[in-house]
Design a protein that fits this description.
- The complex is a heterodimer of chains A (about 500) and B (about 180).
- Chain A has about 500 residues and is of the alpha+beta class.
- Chain A folds into four domains: about 100 residues, Rossmann fold (3-Layer(aba) Sandwich); about 70 residues, 2-Layer Sandwich (Dna Ligase, domain 1), CATH 3.30.1490.20; about 240 residues, D-amino Acid Aminotransferase, Chain A, domain 1; about 30 residues.
- In chain A, about 35% of the residues lie in helices and about 25% in strands.
- Chain A has 17 helices and 22 strands.
- In chain A, the strands form six sheets. An eight-stranded antiparallel beta sheet of chain A has the order 13-12-9-10-11-14-21-19, sandwiched between helices. In chain A, strands 3-2-1-4-5 form a five-stranded parallel beta sheet, with helices on both faces.
- In chain A, a hairpin with a 2-residue loop joins strand 10 and strand 11.
- The longest helix of chain A has 25 residues.
- Chain A is globular.
- The two termini of chain A are about 35 Å apart.
- The C terminus of chain A is likely disordered.
- Chain B has two domains: about 90 residues, 2-Layer Sandwich (Glycoprotein, Type 4 Pilin); about 70 residues, Beta Barrel (OB fold (Dihydrolipoamide Acetyltransferase, E2P)), CATH 2.40.50.100.
- Chain B is built from one helix and 16 strands.
- An eight-stranded antiparallel barrel of chain B has the order 1-2-3-4-5-6-7-8.
- The two termini of chain B are about 30 Å apart.
- Classes of the chains: A alpha+beta (about 500), B mainly beta (about 180).
- Chains A and B meet through strand 16, strand 18, helix 12, helix 13 and helix 16 of A and strand 1, strand 2, strand 3, strand 4 and strand 5 of B.
Chain lengths: ~500, ~180
């Protein structure tokens, strides 16, 4: 079958760039990578058919240079541009510019992106479309006095949110009237600094909410379907760490109802391509939170249970193909994802940097790895700390959890601290095992002096002593044996025989 | 060779390692003697270890190139140790016995100091936040590994710091 495009440029890096490249390969599409100065050796560069330097180190100097990326795409004859997530993925200006340049943007229409990208405007549209939203302001609020008045009407606790917010910035929970003014001023200043927009809005704060989102897919003809929910409540400061599907609290009837709501939300803005409608779920009620107008980090768990390649559909839809899936698709089994982030959970999740020396990746039945990791990779402070995702699929929730525990036990990422160890601990908690958890669980559990499980403490100590002994011995042999090279290797180097191959 | 192996919490274990023949050892810990077989598989950290008949695919790395500072991972669990041999112990390499140890808390990456949570003279627990560093668009609490008494705060709010910059210097608590 003829590929949807002859050539596609991926305007991203890391794990998601590799993910998109792989589907392109599956479809027979030639691939083009772009890279910053520090990403020269990255997997996405090595996997692509062509690669072009963007220069620079910071995102602003590299992956955010939309004009330069479009120029490269035109030069090398790409017919389409996939933005991945982050960077330019939700920038309607970039999406429009790609189309203006005569290429296909692999994503939604810029107008839908713009509407959904604005918290206040999207909320107004959703109210008009009959999608349930959390009781709150429909207009932005410039000063604390107006916020206090509104908070009195809906009752405390309330949440203050930046109009242009994201990544947990400019968000405060206020539990009493006396604390509102100070919280408003700091959150507004934070939003002003981060986004150049200090407008805030006030909404009802839901107790123990769960973050549950629905995947949607739509085509140019206006056909939109949903691919069920993803449970994303294991998060810290609004950064998700573990996701699963199905959600332990969603039954088939609720899934159908939430799915229909998500489809209505997408239809209200004329959506096509893949998108995610995020809801807060609390005590059986659910409310629209926002729509992410891009491929989502955790899309793979949906792919596992529905047996669908979402990136493939994004590309086919961008090429004008009709969605041949219909709402009769059913999920099968259970899937869990753990994000492997370069951060130290023992030191408040401080982002970690360093050179990755030691690497052992899990595999085996039901385990999928979406990763940008390689041995001797340098983890730099310039980009997002997510390095890889482990995704498992099982016939039941129990089996999927056990598979994830097995996969995390197989994983070794040495030289850089990662979130893998904390994820393994979370999977073993009674809350996670029983499925009774909410978005506040991780922070409460971390703060509550979680029990230290150290099943191999004594063995590890003995291994540490053996290793130290071994290092000392190796060094003494090297000293005695002249530079540590075996006579064969030394001879080979002298005569110019290389090590051969890779 | 005798070793003292100290964990994050400051508890230590004494071990005596005797090589029987290439890669095979006798290890004595707490009066118990174990047959051990240790192989460094790839010189990058993957180790194949037998302790008696129990088999481990462990991963061992030195922290920041410091041979006395080892991180051991077994089945996803991570353990951090300081390992000193008998000569180092005799020479007094340890600044103090037990958990107390002088510590300089450093910035793991370039960023801006947006909060300082301690002052000189204050006693802090292991893991307690000392400084808030904004990097990668995120605010990060920087904590101490060992805890102790704050000897000196070297940064102020608003200051830009480079990776590796000293932020806070801690000294062991004096009351042991």
């Amino acid at each position: 079958m003829k590929p949807p495009f002859a050539k596609l440029l991926i305007a991203n890096r890391g794990e998601i760039a590799v993910r998109v490249l792989r589907t392109c390969r599956d479809l027979g599409i030639k691939t083009v990578a772009v890279y910053s100065e520090v990403d020269r050796n990255s997997l996405h560069v090595r996997y692509a058919d062509q690669a072009f330097a963007l220069g620079g180190k910071t995102p602003a100097e590299s992956y955010l240079r939309g004009d330069r990326i479009i120029e490269i795409a035109l030069q090398c004859g790409a017919e389409a541009v996939h933005p991945g997530f982050g960077f330019l993925a939700e920038n309607p200006g970039f999406a429009a510019a790609v189309a203006t340049a005569g290429m296909a943007f692999v994503g939604p229409p810029p107008k839908a992106m713009a509407v959904m990208g604005d918290k206040i405007q999207s909320r107004q549209e959703m109210v008009a479309a009959g999608v349930p939203v959390i009781p709150g302001m429909t207009e932005p609020c410039p000063d604390p006095a107006a916020a206090a008045g509104f908070a009195e009407q809906i009752g405390y606790p309330v949440m203050l949110k930046a109009s242009a917010g994201g990544g947990g910035k400019g968000i405060r929970v206020v539990r009493s009237a006396g604390k509102l003014e100070a919280a408003f001023r700091t959150a507004s200043a934070e939003a002003e600094g981060a986004f150049g927009d200090g407008r805030m809005y006030v909404e009802k704060f839901l107790e123990r909410p769960r973050h549950i989102e629905v995947q949607v897919l739509g085509d140019h003809r206006g056909r939109v379907i949903h691919l069920g929910e993803r449970e994303c409540s294991i998060q810290r400061r609004h950064q998700k760490l573990i996701e699963e599907t199905p959600s332990p609290v969603i039954d088939a009837a609720t899934r159908a109802a939430m799915g229909a709501t998500a489809v209505a939300a997408a239809e209200a803005v004329g959506y096509y391509s893949a998108g995610t409608v995020e809801f807060l779920w609390s005590e059986g009620e659910y409310y629209f939170l926002e729509m992410n107008t891009r491929i989502q980090v955790e899309h793979a768990i949906t792919e596992e249970v529905y047996g669908v390649d979402i990136v493939e559909w994004m590309i086919r839809i961008a090429a004008g193909q009709e969605l041949s899936l219909d709402q009769a698709v059913q999920p099968r089994g259970h899937s869990v994802e753990v994000r492997i982030n370069a951060e130290d959970p023992e030191l408040g999740f401080l982002p970690a940097v360093g050179k990755l020396r030691n690497l052992r990746m899990p595999s085996g039945p039901g385990v999928r790895i979406d990763s940008a990791l390689y041995r001797r990779m340098e983890v730099t402070p310039y980009y997002d700390s997510m390095l890889a995702k482990i995704i498992v699929h099982g016939s039941s929730r129990d089996q999927a959890i056990r598979r994830m525990q097995r996969a995390l036990a197989e994983l070794n990422v040495g030289g850089v601290k990662t979130s893998a160890s904390i994820a393994l601990e979370i999977l073993g908690t009674e809350e996670f095992q029983s499925g009774v958890y909410d978005t506040g669980f991780l922070e409460r559990w971390m703060a509550g002096g979680r029990p230290q499980r150290e099943p191999y403490a004594r063995e590890a100590a003995i291994i540490a002593a053996l290793h130290r002994h071994h290092l000392a011995r190796r060094r003494s042999i090297r000293r005695a044996g002249g530079g540590g090279l075996s006579p064969w290797v030394a001879q080979g180097r002298r005569t110019g025989w290389g090590g051969g191959g890779r | 060779m005798k070793y003292s192996i100290e964990n994050r919490a400051g508890q230590s274990l004494e071990g005596d390692v005797v090589e029987v023949e290439g890669g095979r050892y006798q290890v004595r810990v707490d009066g118990e003697t174990l047959e051990a077989d240790f192989a460094d598989v790839d010189r990058l950290g993957q180790c194949a270890v037998l302790l008696g008949d129990r088999s481990f695919g462990a991963s061992v790395e030195t922290e920041a190139g410091d041979e006395t500072h080892l991180v051991v991972r077994i089945a996803g669990f991570s353990y951090s140790f300081r390992v000193f041999d008998e000569r180092e112990l005799a020479a007094g390499v340890l600044d103090s016995p037990g958990p107390g140890r002088a510590e300089v808390v450093r910035a793991a990456m370039p960023g801006i100091i947006v909060g300082v949570k301690v002052a000189a003279g204050e006693r802090v627990e292991p893991g307690a936040p000392l400084v808030v560093l904004e990097a990668m668009k995120m605010q990060n609490e920087v904590g101490s590994v060992h805890g102790g008494v704050v000897a000196e705060v070297r940064v102020a709010v608003g200051q830009t710091v480079s990776a590796g910059a000293a932020l806070v210097r801690l000294e062991p608590p004096t009351d042991g």
